[in-house]
Amino acid sequence: MNASAVVNTPREPNAGRRVPVRMVWMLPGGLALLAGLDAGLLLLGLPAPVTTERLPDVHGMLLVLGFVGTLISLERATAYARPLGFVAPALLGFGGILLLAAPVPLIAGKVVLAAGAASFVLLYIPLWRRQYDAALLTQLLAAGLAMCGTVIWIGQDELTRVIPWLIGFLVLTIAAERVELARITMGPQAGVRLLLHAWAVAAALAVGIASPDAGAMMLGIVLLSLVGWLVVHDVARRTIRASGVTRYMAACILAGYVWLAVAALVLLLGSPDVQPAYDAVIHSVFLGYTFSMIMAHATTILPAVLRIALPYRPAFWAPITTLQIALVVRVWFGDGLGMPVVWRIGGVLGVLALLLFVVTAVASAVMGPARRALALPVPPAREEKSRSGGRMPLSSPPERENSSRTGVDPQTRAVAEGTTA
Fold first, then answer.
1. CA-to-CA distance for 34 and 51, rounded, in angstroms?
2. How many domains does the chain have?
3. Least packed by Cβ within 10 Å: which of 16, 137, 163, 287?
4. How far is CA 138 from the centre of its chain?
5. What's the gap between Cα 52 and its chain centre?
6. What are phi and psi of 246, to 5 degrees?
7. pTM for the model
8. How far, rounded to the nearest angstrom, does the alpha carbon of residue 210 sit from its chain's CA centroid?
9. Which phi and psi (to 5°) does residue 11 adopt?
10. Within its chain, how far is the Cα of 125 from the centroid?
11. Is 19 domain-assigned?
12. Structural domain boundaries, residue 284
């Protein structure tokens, strides 16, 4: 092979192609995201494009299950590759729409969401049978926590007692995704250790039913232990010194861990019944941890799930940076120091960050991969076999595989092969 080679990245714009069928499944989720952000503005006491009486009351469920739940279940349904697998994202998305439809009784949306969460649990069973893996079992348990949360919500109007179950659902699901993607560097026992944390989370939630303060403190201890273990063993600590998409992903992941630790520390004080503490916990987990992780893995997971090209661009730094600033302003100054005006500013910045991320992702997908022609050394040791049997440079990260055929993210692949490029 020549000492140098021309690396050509063909331009594959999505424009002009048929819209992938899977995009249809995400439409209700996208609507839930926009409606949830609209509701967030209303909760901040600010004007919003759409105003309905019950929209602020369903703000959390729209974002957690209507959007994130639909997205995660769609990824798992893609992994299952059977028509029945798409029942879960369909019900979760439809449940989110029913929450928005004011003429429809709220209980209808609650029941459909519960059915969607139950379908999500059932979806994991054949996946786990396909590959007996502790990380998958953790995700199954996490989906069960979401189902419990939706059932609890059916019997009450407030989300206060539901939030801990949703925290368990998202924290464990995303942590299991990290273990799946980075198992090479985390070691073969990583899934088992994660599963032990998952059972501890479930135990804390069970205790919280009888004693909210004790349950919250237990949950805080478990989450602090979990995030400490993840920070120590996650490859992101090393790849933060890299460049390009690898560094971007690492920064997002580490930021997510920081906010999960913040939530855990607040929970150590007991059940967050006081509004500032409650606000700090839910936004540290659902915005700081969850959406930082979504931004980290968007260019890896979404192309595999939706069958669209979503190349990384430096512009992706804008929304993640805005999100971190928003959370510092809202949680530290707004909630921590009791500054209402600053709290609202942080809330608005959070909405702006998520909208900016959506715009950036859509623009990147429409533009497609940029054409490049660079003379680069390509030694044989820096190449690997692609799934199709051809040669593929490491600079082109592979498509994210499903849970039954676990893939490896660009960061882990780089470290495993002795490079952070």
1. 13
2. 1
3. 16
4. 15
5. 28
6. -65, -45
7. 0.84
8. 30
9. -80, 125
10. 21
11. no
12. 185-371+394-421
